[in-house]
Design a protein that fits this description.
Strand content of chain A: 35-45%
Number of helices of chain A: 3
Structural class of chain A: alpha+beta
Largest interface: A-B, 34 and 28 residues
Order of helices and strands of chain A: EEHEEHHEEEE
Oligomer: homotrimer
Chain lengths: 141, 141, 141
Amino acid sequence: MPMTVLKIETRGQGLYEFTERVRQWLNTEPVAEGLLTLFIRHTSASLLIQENADPEVKTDLRNYFGRLVPPTTDPSMSYLTHTYEGPDDMPAHIKASMLPESLQIPVSDGQMVLGTWQGIYVFEHRDASHLREVVAHLAGS
Amino acid sequence: MPMTVLKIETRGQGLYEFTERVRQWLNTEPVAEGLLTLFIRHTSASLLIQENADPEVKTDLRNYFGRLVPPTTDPSMSYLTHTYEGPDDMPAHIKASMLPESLQIPVSDGQMVLGTWQGIYVFEHRDASHLREVVAHLAGS
Amino acid sequence: MPMTVLKIETRGQGLYEFTERVRQWLNTEPVAEGLLTLFIRHTSASLLIQENADPEVKTDLRNYFGRLVPPTTDPSMSYLTHTYEGPDDMPAHIKASMLPESLQIPVSDGQMVLGTWQGIYVFEHRDASHLREVVAHLAGS
């Protein structure tokens, strides 16, 4: 079963598309029918499949989750105790719990069966820049 | 690896059970032990495994998420920018981010290992009627 | 494809780590490269991969989701109708919808490709003690 690690660079909170990176890797593997799994090796960033037509959707997603889970400096979050790694750290763990750690996409004729508007993203929840590791695993024949 | 596309009709926001459709398809496939993956090819509807005993659970789930992510006409959502596809559109993308895009269910003796009360649903987040495509993929032997 | 059922005891709302239970089972199976799936057979408890370094993270996660989805005795939840199984029941279904029902973890060299801080948990959403069934399924060779 083919497996690789994709390294995705992030520069602060938000969505970073890497659909093409996945597609390019799939094209190098001789699997026509199967199941692709993507798994992020972190607890403060997520994977997400979402619309890639209108960039406003990315901005709105970042802002919605940023309000649903504000920084620990916000008075509404004063009950949180894990604050010594920065005001964005515990909210990052919470968002990483609500949003996918892994994605599963069936593969047919060597292509992911994504819908027309579906793109694949790393959703970064930390303020600082990070290099995120996504394990890609392909089962099939 | 067997694969098919199930088309699920929805008529506005809410949960639509299709457990039997999945079961019927499994019964036609000669796989005894394996892994079933369901994947929805849309960014404004979700898949969900939830209780199918009491229909009130479905209503309560629709209403809870409808309040957590209200329409963009709600003053609390005025910061959202992706509004030209209707007041239910950007909330649909947000709900589709928080709820599963895909489901994975082990198969044993040709049957899904679902718990007693677990049913499989499309969770529609748009107001209009839609025909939703769910890819079903079965790996095993 | 190897499959087993892990039974996890819970004593009220919160996170219960069982990474070592999974690791021990993997060590008994002769699969070097593959995909591990964990599936919880319940609609009022979740699975979660989260940081296992600092126990405060577990407490904060329980408290955040306990405030986001308060008991049905809370006035803000008075619109909910499925209340006859106790004030923690419908919130448990809601939390189980927002948090993972299943986890997928690639396996390489016989080990899960977890990141340094990633632990595997049952996230119990009910107040009473429960014995939760988690199906573990391993595909590969």
